Amino acid sequence: MSSDFVWRLLAAFACGVAIGLERQIRQRTAGLRTITLVACGAALFVTLGTLIGNGGNGGDGVTRIASYVVSGVGFLGGGVIMRDKGSIQGINTAATLWCSAAVGVLCGSGYYVPALAGTVLVLVTNTVLRDVSRMINSTPVSAADLVRQYVITVVCREEDEIHVRSILANPMSSAPLSFQSLMSRDVPDQPQRIEVTATLRLHPKDQSKLEHVAGRLSMEKGVSSVSWAGLDTEPTLE
């Protein structure tokens, strides 16, 4: 049984190294050591179930331990997921951790071929499908079912504030821009200057309309600067 245990642990180690190398090369949060430890740890826990479960319910013990491994890896996955400026980072790394734990469970259970197949599948997903997803993201977004949030900022004279706000809010000139907010504030160190900030949501294919409005505002006599920026992109609701 000791030799079988060693082979299972070595298989989990090899699969963990294969998956972890790809993550380490891409400088992800969970790299070579973390993923290898997850795979080996999962194998150790499941192997423990086979060592102490030689009675009548060994299979039930292994299944129960495997479920605990899945729950434990869930906490690790939550630790590598971060929120940065409205976007979620690390979901793919968390999923890779989860899959490496599954590979470790298979190795610990003695299913070497399924474990190898799982390792190959994870590597293909993180390499080949990565390029495929980039190709899809680089295609024109005119048919994509999504919206994007934009912020346009206009600096103008105090006496032109109402005129600037009317241009932004005029449905005839700004359609199909969907304004979420329209705010004004004094410009620091620039007396008699007002900064008008508009937040809006629209489909990226309509971005040229936003550029048209910004260009029109920049030609106004009392406007000293116009700028706009695109923020996060999100799917539209069904």
UniProtKB/TrEMBL annotation:
Chief location category: membrane
One GO cellular component term: plasma membrane
Pfam family, one: MgtC_SapB_C
Domain MgtC/SapB/SrpB/YhiD N-terminal residue range list: 9-134
Keywords: Cell inner membrane, Cell membrane, Membrane, Transmembrane, Transmembrane helix
Subcellular location: Cell inner membrane; Cell membrane
MgtC-like C-terminal domain ranges (all copies): 150-228
KW Cell membrane (keyword) present: yes
Membrane-spanning ranges: 6-22, 34-53, 65-82, 94-113
Membrane topology term: Multi-pass membrane protein
Family (UniProt): Belongs to the MgtC/SapB family.
Summary of the function given for this chain in its UniProt record: Virulence factor required for growth in low Mg(2+) medium and for intramacrophage survival. May be involved in regulating membrane potential by activating Na(+)/K(+)-ATPase.
Annotated protein name in UniProt: Protein MgtC
Classification lineage: Bacteria, Pseudomonadati, Pseudomonadota, Betaproteobacteria, Burkholderiales
